[in-house]
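Many introductory courses stop at the sequence. We go one step further.
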Amino acid sequence: MEEGKEKPSYTKLKDLPKATKLVFSRLPFVFITLGVCVENFNMSVGGAFMPKVMQTQFYLPPGKAALLFGVIAIPCAFSGNLLGTFKKKILIKH
């Protein structure tokens, strides 16, 4: 680093607006963060309410609906992660 030129450090409360503007000016960061937030929201809502939906749609008792949802959701999540990793590995090679 050159003499006399320092990187700005945002350590004081008065620097918060500048730091916030700097963070929100990085559009890839903003959209990746929003995408992760929406994905996590969808997963938590699905995990909480999907057994209840299955219970009412298919006339299942609560315990059986929750067990069936777990039996369906866990292998699907595992295979989705595995497939996504494999796809990423293939795309990186090419």
